TrEMBL record:
Organism: Kibdelosporangium persicum
Alphabetical UniProt keywords: Antibiotic biosynthesis
Pathway involvement of the protein, from the record: Antibiotic biosynthesis; vancomycin biosynthesis
UniProt name for this protein: UDP-glucose--sterol glucosyltransferase
Domain Erythromycin biosynthesis protein CIII-like C-terminal: 291-357
Length: 410
């Protein structure tokens, strides 16, 4: 089967699909990953065909709108900037999806390409499936992360997301025009979402049920599979200074914020440096898109390192709580101190505390020395629980469930 996986965003929106692609290739399928230029080498390394999607998420996050989006976070407060970001991406995503879907028999769609991919698949008469990295269907058991994730009680948790699908958005003109260009009946963005929720459209979730069990009120076809792990980079070896640092003392704390907070290097680096000094910990600090750095005898600043190699050698991890990094911390079996920014990140931060692997979190926009130092001091109390959850997560095979799903379609 010719499968095209379409995903846009940051590194965390792309690399989970590389391991999945490798498993599908090993099962005999012809697999392409369509994503933005920055991740072309990552795709090729997993053996999949690379297809180019337009856009540059790093530039988008560093734009005025992108910085405002990160400052305001997720939920009702961030709806305006979320819509502005959505409008900014709509045209290029629609154009890209039409191009990369050529020849596909199955489209596998990450959230950023979901609406356009769903419509293109309908127009082409082929099958499609949503591959969500965080909950994508309403439930009484939680509020959707895209609406802030804070529970409003069972009835509102379920009813509010559905009610919002009946409200027009500034994106409607684009969606209706896109439908017309494809020769499909014009419909609304909300109408498409309701169709996905209530039809037999498959929605698969790539996170662990140990972190968030599948809700009892999801219909059949909306499933929680377990994490789809990134494929380890080929021929990678750790730098000598990192190996030496890890061997020179007790396990350090990892601190890194991935693709979040570009342009905040000075503020964040000063906070991290003082936290390390005040708590007396050893720390490995990952630069990321923020350009994070720290100074001191017990600190090492690094570039990108595979989390599955590094995290098990740490005593705790401090991160922005993106879906993939959250999974890597759970698999490593170490305590987590989340510093969420937006989107699904506050939701995952709350879930980590709820299952007992985290002492709590501090929002990036409120990050300061005292709260971060306090949370790191409490983190060791959660080590035993983190080990238990880690064993559960390592026993799962999320990619294997997707391979079985694809086999069932043949």
């Amino acid at each position: 089967m010719k499968i095209v996986i379409i995903t846009i965003g940051s590194r965390g929106d792309v690399v989970p699909y590389t391991g999945l692609a490798a498993r599908l290739l090993a099962d005999g399928h012809d697999v392409a990953i369509a994503t933005q230029a920055a991740f072309g080498d990552v795709v090729k390394d997993c053996g999949a065909e690379f297809r180019l999607m337009p856009g540059d998420m790093r530039a988008d996050l560093q734009s005025e709108t992108g910085l405002a989006w990160q400052r305001q976070g997720t939920g009702l407060k961030g709806i305006r900037t979320s819509i502005e970001m959505g409008i900014r991406l709509m045209d290029e995503v629609g154009r890209g999806v039409r191009q990369v879907a050529d020849g596909a028999e199955l489209l596998m769609l990450q959230r950023g390409a979901l609406i356009h991919g769903y419509l293109v698949a309908k127009a082409m008469g082929i099958r499609s499936v949503a591959l969500e990295l965080f909950p994508g269907a309403p439930s009484r058991e939680f509020m959707l992360p895209s609406l802030g994730g804070k529970s409003l009680g069972g009835w509102l948790n379920h009813a509010l997301p559905r009610a919002l699908t009946h409200l027009p958005t500034p994106m409607e003109r684009h969606i209706k025009s896109f439908c017309a260009d494809l020769g499909l009946p014009r419909t609304s963005l909300g109408g498409l979402r309701r169709e996905m929720f209530d039809s037999d459209f498959p929605i698969r979730h790539g996170y662990s049920p140990a972190l968030l069990p599948r809700p009892h009120d999801w219909r059949p076809g909306i499933e929680t599979d377990g994490y789809w792990w990134p494929l380890p980079p080929q021929d990678w070896k750790p730098a000598a200074d990192l190996v030496d640092f890890l061997a020179a003392g007790p396990p350090p704390v990892f601190i890194g914020f991935g693709s979040m907070a570009p342009g905040e290097s000075d503020r964040l680096s000063a906070i991290v440096t003082e936290v390390v000094r005040r708590t007396g910990i050893r720390a490995v600090v990952q630069a990321g898109w923020a350009g994070l750095a720290a100074t001191g005898d017990d600190v090492l600043t690094i570039d990108s390192v595979p989390h599955d190699w590094l995290f098990p050698q740490t005593s705790a991890v401090v991160h922005h709580c993106g879906a993939g990094t959250t999974g890597a911390g759970l698999r490593a079996g170490v305590p987590v101190v989340p510093v969420p920014v937006l989107a699904d990140q506050p939701f995952w931060a709350a879930r980590l505390a709820a299952i007992g692997v985290s002492p709590g979190s501090v929002l990036m926009r409120e990050l300061a020395v005292e709260p971060l130092a306090g949370l790191l001091t409490k983190a060791p109390r959660h080590a035993d629980r983190a080990q238990v959850i880690g064993e559960q997560v390592r026993a799962e095979d999320g990619a294997g469930k997707i391979v079985e799903f694809v086999r069932s379609m043949a």
